[in-house]
Amino acid sequence: MSEPAFIADPSLAPYNVAYIVDDRSQCYREYDVDRDRDHGPVDPARDAPVDYAARREAILAFYGGRCGRCGTAVATQSAEETSLGYVYSVASESEPAWALSNLVALCEPCYDMLSASCCRDLGAFGDTYRRAPQFPTWTCDPRVAVERLPLTGREAWLRHRLADRIDDQPACRANRTVARSACLARATPAAEAVALGEAFVRDERGALSTANTRLRDRWHALTDPERADWEACAVDPDTSLVTGGFEPALERHPV
Description:
Layout: H1 17-20, H2 25-30, H3 52-62, E1 74-75, E2 83-84, E3 86-89, E4 103-106, H4 108-115, H5 157-166, H6 176-181, H7 190-205, H8 215-221, H9 224-234, H10 240-243
Parallel strand pairs: 1-2
Antiparallel strand pairs: 3-4
Helix pairs in contact: 7-9
């Protein structure tokens, strides 16, 4: 069984208050962050607001000096025991990209993974991102947390994060089918994902004739005992997709 990057101590208060309380308004005052710069830099030559350092310090402190994805200790400077801390925006197109509420603290490998535009770019800063605990767990921010598919251990971020960028990346064209089809939708229940497999992805993306029924509809048409049988044989009882906690399947089912 693989070791998680961070093991929670139930006797101590959770360090990651971001998961429990998401009101970051006090950080603006405490770290002298200007709300008027939440929408980003005014100067087109800059890729971050002029108060980036203050925003980064505020977010790293808010996440308790831990990566919001894998739990690795982070700091403003890398050291033997800590990774260099980054901030990553999870804002939608209509939200201010640099608002503190939309920023997540990440270690260098996790930032590398989430900002990569192609699979071949991964791993330049280590493979800590592979050992991140499976969501749900209080050590993670749900917006960047790990979701692995049952049994295979593959992460759902491949399709969620990269699918929209693959068509614009010439270097990814050879991997387009793999990147789009390797992972099922994040909302697919574990038993359904295993039961329907790759056919589910192809069916959801393909055209539907009036003579056919979507696999999802066929799944819902099963009786409760039939679905229970699928779940019993398809879902690893140790996987936290069902039970919560950490994902132990990495060594048995490598990505």
